[in-house]
Structure formats: C-alpha cells, structure tokens
Amino acid sequence: MNNPKKEKSKKRKDQKNSFFLTEFNQEKIAFSKMIKEIVCPKAYKKLRSRCLSSIESFSDEGVVTNTPNGPLIFRDNDSDILAVAHLDTVRQDRHFGFEKSKSDILYNCQLDDRLGAWIILDVLPEHDITVDVLLTTEEESCMSTAEYFTHNKQYNWLVEFDRAGTDVVTYKYRNTNWLNALRNEGNRIKFGSYSDICVLEHLEAQAVNWGIGSYDGHNRESWCSISELNKAIDRFVEFYKINHEIYFPHEPGRNCYPEKKSFIYDELDELELQALDQEAINKGLSDQERFDRYEQYLNWFDNEQDKILERESFYNSPEEEQDQTQQYSSGSYLTFPSLRQKFDHRILN
Q1: Parallel, antiparallel, or unpaired: how do β-strands 81-86 and 157-164 relate?
Q2: Where are the alpha helices (DSSP H) in 61-193?
Q3: Quick one: how far is CA 260 from the chain centroid?
Q4: Do 72 and 145 meet the contact criterion of CB atoms below 8 Å apart?
C-alpha cells in the first residue's frame, strides 16, 4: 500500500524540481535569443578580434617559446614593468557584443583572459604606457607556461589583468610598501586563488592581479561592465605614473602563508558560508534572519581579511605557523582555525 505522506512529499519535490528546471530553461532560451541580437560597436572591433582569434594568431606579438606545458610569447619593449595575460580560455562560444538597449554590458566567453591581453597590447599604448609583454597558455589548468619564463632583466614590478570584479589580489607578494602603494590608489586588496603571476616569484619583484570588471568568466553568460573596466584602467594608469620607476623587491619563498594557502582560504570561506547557512536553517531562523546573519558574516570576514593583510605574518606566532604548515603539508587543510566558530564567538555570543 502506498504511503500518502511519501507520495505527497515526492509530488512536491517533483513540482519544485520542475519549477526550477522550467525557470532555468526559460533563462537559457532567453539568453540564447538575446546573444543572437547583440551588436559590436566600432570601438570594440579590436577587442572582438582579440577575443575570437586563435592562440596561434598572437605569435606575431613577440618571440614564441615552446615549453613542456605549451607556448608562451614574450615581447621586450625595453620596459622595467612586465605585464602578463593568458591566452587560453575555458569556453569557445563565438558571441561578442552588447545588447542594443544596454551599452555597459559586454558579453563574450573569452574575456578571461583575452580582455587582459587587449588591455596590454592595445589600451596601455594609448595611454603612453610601455610595458614588456608576457602572453601565456595553460593558466586555466593551473599549469601556466609563465613558470618557464626567464629574463636577465630586473623588473620593478609585475602586473596581470586577469581578475574579476574591481579589487586586486597579490597572492604571495606581501611587501608592505607594495601593499601600501596599491591602497594609495584606492585599491581594495583581497585574497585570490591562482593566476600566472603565482609562478613568477623567481623574477624577484612584487606583482598584482588587477580587477578589470569582468564576471562569470568560465560560463556562457560571461560579461564585463564597461564602466567598471574603464575605472580600473584609469586607476592603473595613475598607479603606473606614480610607481613605474620604483623597484618593489620580492624574496621568493618568503610568504605570509604556505604555498596555495590563499586557494585553501577561499575554499574554506565557501565551506564556512555553507555551514553557517545550514546552522541557521537548523536553528529555524527565518529567511530574513538568515540573510542578515549572512551579511553580518561577510562584513566581518572582510574586516578579518584586512587585518590579516596588514600584519607581517598570517599567523599569530611562530609556533602557530609551524603547526599549521605541518597540517597543510599533510593535506589536513580543514583543520585551520574555523572562521565560522570565531565569528560565532565574537559576533553572535
């Protein structure tokens, strides 16, 4: 005999799944229809070409070196600054342009990181900024060919334009003067996971990955805010003018956290948020209460990150650093002190 309660529960679940599936399909259909009608103004024809061209088409931009991971392209422009972008992309969709009614949102699936290549090759020269150019491949598989780049020149600093949003990240490059110089131009410094500059420590110069207003980089709906992009470029131009003659040294291996710790920190943050929300559900909090708690956590977490970035070391003591490094080396990264527990203790109790 069928259980009426189970049948009712199954029916509700099917209805819910059907609703979300229908909603998802409607959004997918709407997006497919929209991208058939997007337009590309003349001012963005060059960017369109950069985004939709093959990797091989960039071979004229410099000297090509074939590495065990793939090719890299380098152009020496006799500059003390090295600018980096990667040419490999996750998706190969061919759409590019703007909705006719929305001139600020550009849709394209190769913006990560052909947008960065365009900035380096085409935009910076318009601002009379000269940089050496390094174009890499295999960044998306975390095997960037930048690892094999060597040069006898001492660069003052490195910049990459491969960051979503409007903040900047420095990964292992934690020189206090460097961080202050970035902040002085209104940059918000956050944590990141991986990009080409992570494997360029051997150049012994500080580096930054500059946010350029792009979003959803690995998805079909990948897009860029032109207003945010222009502001990011303006900030970099000012930063360059003030700092291009200053050498910011980096000592390889001297990090404020173990290698790849920033990636782990991001993952831990995501896990903490999931656990935080599940706790709120278990406590029977309303949707509004859950939202308020979530927002409170994010604000607190941002402040904690800022405090960490202002310290000489991620750790509170040499003993803690040794202990946590050993735990990291053994793969037990989830044993790092729980930010959620710290949040509960300091904020909620």
Answers
A1: parallel
A2: 111-118, 176-184
A3: 14
A4: yes
For residue 111, which of 74, 142, 146, 85 has the smallest C-alpha distance?
85
Residues in the chain: 349
Residue 344 neighbours by CB under 8 Å, 6+ apart: none
Tally Cβ neighbours within 10 Å of residue 339: 20
Domain ranges of the chain: 35-243, 261-348
Among residues 134, 131, 88, the alpha carbon closest in space to that of 111 is found at 88
297 vs 248: CA distance, rounded Å: 34
Using CA atoms, how far apart are residues 197 and 159, in angstroms rounded to an integer? 8
Task: Give the model confidence (pLDDT) of 53-71 as tens digits.
Answer: 999 999 999 999 999 999 9
Confidence class for position 267, pLDDT limits 50, 70, 90: very low
- At the second CATH level, the architecture of 35-243 is 3-Layer(aba) Sandwich (3.40)
- Number of Cβ within 10 Å of residue 66's Cβ equals 10
What token pair was written down for 144? 């960037």
Ranges 17-21, 29-33, 100-104, 317-321: which has the least confidence: 17-21
pTM: 0.70
Residue with tokens 């550009």: 106
Give pLDDT tens digits for 121-162.
999 999 999 999 999 999 999 899 999 999 999 999 999 999
List Cβ neighbours of 40 (8 Å cut-off, separation of 6 or more): 48, 96, 97, 98
- The answer to whether the beta carbons of residues 149 and 97 sit under 8 Å apart is no
Q: Higher model confidence: residue 137 or residue 318?
A: 137
Of residues 185 and 239, which shows the higher confidence score? 239
